[in-house]
Design goal:
Layout: H1 2-26, H2 29-34, H3 42-52
């Protein structure tokens, strides 16, 4: 049972990561700068956001 719940959680985290990654990647450099994000930091920010939920 623990294995199944861990797998479900990982799938949810991965989906959230991909969603955040897509949304941030769509923004232009100017928009990213306005919110204080460098393009090079998008992957880390998306991963941190996904794990926080």
């Amino acid at each position: 049972m623990y294995l199944v719940s861990s797998l479900v959680r990982m799938v949810r985290v991965w989906r959230k990561y991909n969603e955040s990654l897509r949304e941030l990647s769509r923004l232009g450099d100017r928009e990213l700068a306005d919110i204080g994000i460098l393009r090079a930091d998008i992957q880390k920010i998306a991963w941190d956001a996904a794990k926080a939920d």
